[in-house]
Amino acid sequence: MRTVEDAVGAVLSGAISAITQRSIFNRLGGLARTPVGQLGPVERQTVLKELESSLRLFARGSSAELLAACERALSDVAGTGTAASSGGGAGVGGGGAAAAASKATIHKTFAVDQEKDIATARLEAWSEAVRIGLSKFTAVKVATAVSELARNIVFYAGKGTVELRATEDERGPSLHIVATDKGPGIEPRKLEEIWAGTYKSQRGMGKGLLAVKKLVTDFHLDTGPGKGTTVTCIFRGER
Amino acid sequence: MKRSTAVSMGSGGSDGSVGRSRAADQNLAIIQIRNCLLVSIQTELHDRLALDLQESLMERVRIADAIGVILDVSAVEVIDSYITRILNDIGKSVRFMGAECYIVGIRPAVAMTLIEMGVELDSVHTALNLDLALERLELLQ
Amino acid sequence: MPKKENGPAGIVEFTQSRLEDLVQALAYAAIDDFEACLALMKGTLVGDSFATLEGGFTDFLTQLVGAKSDLNDALVQAEEANRNLEAKLETIERQQAAIRELSTPIIEVWTGVLCLPVVGIVDSQRSAEMTETLLEMIVAKQARTAIVDITGIDAMDTKTADHFIKMAKAVRLLGADCILSGINPGIAQTLTHIGVDLTGIRTLRNLRDALQAYLREHHAEHLRPADRRV
Fold first, then answer.
1. Cα A182–A223–A148 angle (5° rounding)?
2. Where are the domains of chain C?
3. Lowest-confidence region among B65-74, B78-87, C33-42, C160-169
4. Whether C132 contacts chain B with CB within 8 A
5. What percent of chain C has pLDDT over 70?
6. H/E element holding C62?
7. B67 is a domain residue
8. What is the dihedral of CA A51, A55, A60, A64, to 10 degrees?
9. What average pLDDT does the structure give for chain A?
């Protein structure tokens, strides 16, 4: 929830010192902490008047422009303003923009349509694993699992996607892999054979899924005739 | 290599009459060392290439009357169940021709991954290096 | 800058410029330019009540500057303390790594023979680390035999046993021999119980037996070439 403080602070940072901003918001009192979306027209005017007198006295750069920018920020109910810059505005209020910048999660998706895409997906997965700090042995496991999944997509469905998402929590880094295709899906009986280790397709492809299941920390399969196939798995590393 | 004596490159067998193999065309050189054949796998072994390699090896084993085929996978960073099957197939077909197949140079991480996946390299033997593979092959004689 | 002196008490005479100066000084303060601000206020003379305001303002501002400088110093100190802390954390991590290494030494007891004595608690992370180190050493030293001695382990649950079986299988996959020594009856029972396939993995009662077996079998290799019977 972007408050008046957040919105105005973002505009004013760099133009007015933190201390002065603080005193303006103090004078505004409760109004400063009101979410922009909940600001009524009269309240908005009050805020703008206060800003106007302060800006005329104190601001570097054109006060009229700054005021206009503040007015725009206060009308921006959807709160789609950009993140607060770290200049003078940083210490003010917090909330909104600052909270979103917690652990970065990188998201990558690859189309897998032909054989050479298997190698690409493999390499990217390996790089991600290394980047987030998984051990080099684990990185090879990651690459191997992605190789299996990508190959299954190409051989059974013709095309699909492999999605990589790297995250980090208190337990350590983890890499989420989602391999999706809209192919024929796997029928329940075949699935039983796959998990039992007895399934073998003509091209000898049956062992991949079971192999992936044994390699990963978490494994989830969603499939069925006509449903396509989605494999979700997670590799976790140590802190 | 301590034991290398006659080393012939590419597809020339000891009688020199065979034309260039397809596998050699795609940079998979088959080297003959005494009565064994050595191939170093450097690139992605997709379907077509694997089949070509299998055929070339069977042919060369026949021509050279080789007792063994050694596949060097030290440059291979990932071996999944599909590649395992290709390697097993090569092992089986070479066995048909009366020779044994040795894989050398498996990387530690690859070995661990294969074991964890429960995938078996059951139609080939493994050795730490070329010398040991040659030694074992001779002992099999 | 024209200034006014004391007028009759209660009447403050000042020129517009004093007021403007004060506002200007405020403006400077607002943008953190305290130097300009204080420079502007220096010209004031003590005197009328407006001057009291000016003086008060100047005092206040001087305090502010002082406080800011103190704050900066505190920040610098905090940063240094932080750096110290990080250095200490690094040391702890290094020591932990050293402890881990020490707790699983892999010794080359003979040419091409590695021995891994396992002592203590083996959880999945430790067994993964041990396996990785053992495999890497086998390749690095081109060691043909690895003896994994588990004399130091009293009991094993099925999960741990599974880790060791995988370790042995991985060693074999590299092309080396693996000998498991020091299996006590309890562990032997566990292994039988989980129905594990131990083909290719030799099991011997203790390290001495394992070494003896190795030497017997590889006796010929370690003779000098002249002594070898071909």
1. 75
2. 1-101, 107-227
3. C33-42
4. yes
5. 85
6. helix C49-103
7. yes
8. 90
9. 82
Number of C-beta neighbours around residue A64 at 10 A:
12
Domains of chain A: 4-100 (no CATH), 106-236 (3.30.565.10)
Out of A223-227, C100-104, C188-192, give the one with best mean pLDDT. Answer: A223-227
Sheet hosting strand A218-224, strand order edge to edge: A106-112, A160-169, A172-181, A228-236, A218-224
The answer, for A147 touching chain B at a CB cutoff of 8 Å, is yes
**The total number of structural domains that make up chain B:** 1
What's the complex ipTM? Answer: 0.82
Hey, is the C-beta of A130 within 8 angstroms of any chain B C-beta?
no
Q: Among all residues of chain B, which has the CA nearest to that of A205?
A: B82
Q: Which residue has the tokens 């940063």?
A: C79
Q: In whole angstroms, what is the distance from residue A163 CA to residue A121 CA?
A: 9
Say if B15 is an interface residue toward chain A (CB within 8 Å). Answer: no
Which residue has tokens 């603080």? A22
Average pLDDT over every residue of B9-28: 48
Six token digits for residue C40:
């502007």
**Chain A residues with CB-CB distance to B78 below 8 A:** 122, 126, 140, 143-144, 147
As a whole number of angstroms, the distance between CA B41 and CA B38 comes to: 10
Q: How many CB atoms lie within 10 A of CB C154?
A: 9
Q: How far is A80 from chain C (nearest CA, A)?
A: 28
Write down the pLDDT at residue A134. 92
Contact yes or no for C186/C155 (Cβ under 8 A):
yes
Q: List C42's β-bridge partners, or say none.
A: none
One of 3.30.750.24, 3.30.70.120, 3.90.76.10, 3.40.50.170 is the CATH number of C107-227, namely 3.30.750.24
Look at residue B2 and tell me if it is in a domain.
no
Asked, for residue B1, whether it belongs to a domain, the answer is no
Judge whether B65 lies within some domain: yes
Pairing of strands C177-181, C145-152: parallel
C95-138 pLDDT tens trace: 877 776 667 789 999 899 999 999 877 888 888 989 999 999 99
CATH of the domain at B53: 3.30.750.24
Contacts of B45 (CB under 8 A, 6+ apart): B53, B83, B86
Q: Residue A129 in 3-state DSSP?
A: helix
Asked if C173 lies within 8 A of B106 by C-beta distance, the reply is yes
- Greater model confidence, B140 or C85: C85
Residue C72, φ and ψ in degrees, nearest 5: -60, -45
- A43 close to A101: Cβ distance less than 8 angstroms: no
Q: Is the pLDDT of residue A109 over 80?
A: yes
Structural domain for B24, as ranges: 7-140
The pTM of this model reads 0.65
| Residue (of B78, B81, B61, B79) closest to B70 by Cα position | B61
Question: Comparing C-alpha atoms, which of A1, A20, A100, A49 is closest to residue A9?
Answer: A20
Chain A residues in contact with C34 (beta carbon < 8 A): none
- The pLDDT score that the predictor gives to residue A78 is 58
CA–CA distance, B28 with C31 (Å, rounded to integer): 71
